[in-house]
């Protein structure tokens, strides 16, 4: 018998699934946890490393207090811009008060990025007080930040459920970003 002449089975309609009742109003985004710390920590540490390398100019005046203030101001500005852009891309309907609450939460969620720049800021302040030379401070700062990138990656990877071996590999991948900045700093200068 020819296969084309057999009747094809008709699809059966699916029973309607009940849709959940809508929430009473828009909710606040949850605070950042786990992997989001890594995002903010890595981003802030990379930002601090890049600024540290860029602010150190051969033959220029060495101003560690000025440099520390610029690292901190840039981190805060980047955090504000990043939080605000998250807020704008997740716009929800709601009262003005609610939108301000959502914006405040989005801005607060950027604290890991700003906190991640504090070791570099502290190093620059100590360098200014101890009158360390710019080359040594830049080398120590970039090395410290590379170690911090390894720590950020490994710690958060373990915290979100990776096994130790995988977490260490993630830490090495993050540290490679710091090494790339060190190499770029050496090549460019």
Number of helices: 7
Low-confidence stretches: 21-25
Shape: globular
Radius of gyration (CA) equals 25 Å
Assembly type of the shown chains?
Answer: single chain
- String of helices and strands: HHHHHHH
Largest sheet: none
**Integer average pLDDT:** 81
The proportion of residues forming helix, as a percent range, comes to 55-70%
User: How many beta-strand runs?
Assistant: 0
Beginning-to-end CA distance, first to last residue: 81 Å
Report the β-strand fraction as a percent range: under 5%
Structural class category: mainly alpha
Concise overview:
This protein has helices at residues 35-55, 64-89, 96-108, 111-116, 118-130, 134-159, 164-188.
Provide structural commentary.
The chain is mostly helical. It is 69% helix and 0% strand. It is built from seven helices and no strands. α5 runs antiparallel to α6. The model is unreliable at 21-25 (pLDDT under 50).
């Amino acid at each position: 018998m020819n296969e084309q002449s057999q009747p094809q089975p008709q699809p059966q309609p699916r029973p309607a699934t009940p849709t959940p009742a809508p929430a009473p109003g828009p909710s606040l985004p949850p605070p950042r946890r786990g992997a989001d710390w890594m995002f903010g920590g890595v981003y802030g540490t990379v930002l601090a490393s890049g600024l540290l390398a860029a602010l150190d100019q051969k033959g220029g005046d060495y101003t560690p207090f000025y440099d520390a203030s610029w690292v901190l101001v840039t981190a805060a500005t980047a955090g504000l811009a990043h939080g605000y852009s998250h807020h704008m891309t997740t716009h929800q309907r709601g009262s003005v008060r609610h939108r301000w609450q959502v914006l405040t939460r989005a801005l607060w969620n950027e604290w890991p990025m700003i906190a991640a720049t504090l070791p570099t800021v502290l190093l620059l302040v100590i360098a200014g007080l101890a009158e360390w030379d710019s080359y040594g401070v830049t080398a120590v700062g970039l090395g410290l930040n590379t170690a911090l990138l390894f720590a950020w990656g490994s710690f958060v990877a373990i915290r979100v459920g990776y096994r130790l071996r995988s977490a260490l590999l993630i830490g090495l991948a993050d540290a490679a970003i710091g090494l790339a900045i060190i190499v770029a700093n050496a090549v460019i200068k």
